[in-house]
Design goal:
With about 300 residues, the protein is an alpha/beta fold. The protein is built from 9 helices and 10 strands. Helices cover about 35% and strands about 15% of the residues.
Length: about 300
């Protein structure tokens, strides 16, 4: 594809986009670009005060609503207040944090990055008209899905293997959602994206020496505006194909403009993806059901 930028986003007037984690970093840049293109943007953020300046920069077509992906009750409350959504961008995340748990007892990175978004997507999918975009990472390549101990209760915790697991889970979820939507005859798309190495606030919360190391590394990273391009392309480009994975086109996918990229062999393991899906339904209490009769992916949410 050509060197696609935010200036290539088609008119989004009349469309509603939910962006999780839109208070800073990639989410804020994506929200601002979508708002500038005319979309109504719902900034879904844990800290609504930090999101307020981003909403103000966008203008009247931006709205801030509270969403804490580390608390399934917050996810349910948020989803109940959304009437319609054309595009859902699962952008928020935590990275490399010390061992801790979510409000529901899940390992923080797996619970926030994957389970929170899995639940949110399931609760909103019957109102999504166009696509779901889920952010992964180059770090998915170091991840392994441990369906027997996803929350690190029976093995020694490693912050980076845990992060890799969560990002691999994000990618496998996007692929599996695409397969299930397609099997149901739905026109809704599911895509994944990653930002390469982009300078965002995500790198400064490990509470370890990594904060300083990544601070130095950020001198060589691309900015958040460039890092947001793959998710913006996935969310808005008519040519973006469901089931694809978008990332930067530069060396080692570290920086550059959006293109379709490859992913690890583990990410393509359909048996593990099916096991992860079932596990995620059990842990969150959100069950997806796809009906083929109408030609759309109709979703019933059970286990509430």
């Amino acid at each position: 594809m050509a060197k696609w930028t935010a200036r290539d986003i088609a008119d989004q007037t009349g469309r509603t986009v939910v962006v999780t984690g839109a208070n800073s970093g990639l989410g804020a840049e994506a929200a601002k670009a979508l708002g500038a293109a005319g979309a109504t943007v719902i900034l879904a953020c844990r800290n609504v005060d930090k999101a307020a300046p981003v909403a103000a920069a966008i203008g009247a077509n931006a709205e801030v609503r509270r969403l804490d992906l580390a608390d399934l009750s917050s996810v349910r409350d948020f989803a109940a207040g959304v009437d319609t959504v054309d595009v859902l961008i699962n952008n928020a995340g935590v990275m490399g944090v010390p061992q801790s748990t979510t409000a529901d007892g899940f390992e923080m990175q797996f619970g926030t990055n994957h389970l929170g978004h899995f639940a949110l997507t399931g609760l909103l999918l019957d109102r999504v008209t166009d696509c779901v975009v889920t952010m992964s990472s180059l770090m998915h390549r170091i991840g392994t899905i441990n369906v027997d101990d996803p929350n690190w209760q029976h093995r020694r915790y490693g912050r980076w293997p845990a992060y890799g697991q969560s990002k691999l889970a994000n990618l496998m979820f996007a692929y599996e959602l695409d397969r299930r939507l397609a099997a149901a005859g739905s026109t809704v798309k599911s895509l994944a994206a990653h930002p390469g190495y982009a300078s965002t606030g995500l790198q400064g919360h490990t509470q370890s020496v990594w904060d300083r190391l990544m601070g130095v590394g950020n001198l060589f990273a691309q900015n958040a505006e460039m890092g947001a391009l793959p998710e913006l392309y996935a969310a808005t480009a008519p040519s973006a194909v469901s089931g694809s994975y978008l990332g930067p086109d530069g060396p080692f996918e570290q920086r550059g403009y959006p293109k379709v990229v490859g992913s690890s062999g583990k990410s393509r393991d359909r048996a593990v993806a099916a096991s992860l899906w079932g596990l995620s339904e059990r842990l969150t209490g959100v069950t997806y059901r796809f009906a083929k009769s109408s030609g759309l992916g109709e979703v019933s949410v059970l286990g509430e």
